[in-house]
Write a structure and sequence with these properties.
Blueprint lengths: L1 H33 L28 H9 L1
């Protein structure tokens, strides 16, 4: 009987830990989605001349725009 209760408790703890990790990954992904990274570097294939740099980017999104992005 005690073995069954112990195994059940471990299964519940593992499920709770998996849920917490899942929620943390979702929050982390939302933070990454809001952050603007630089443009990717162009690929170099053969003897192609390098591309000119891209112009300045627009301003970063406001707090309201970030909240709307998350609610979609």
């Amino acid at each position: 009987m005690y073995t069954f209760v112990t195994v059940a408790a471990f299964i519940v703890l593992i499920a709770a830990a998996a849920y917490v990790i899942h929620r943390l990954n979702i929050e982390h992904a939302d933070r990454i989605a809001v952050h603007r990274y630089s443009t990717p570097l162009p690929r170099r294939s053969g003897r192609v001349a390098p591309q000119p740099p891209v112009g300045p980017r627009s301003e970063s999104p406001t707090a309201g725009e970030r909240r709307r992005h998350r609610s979609r």
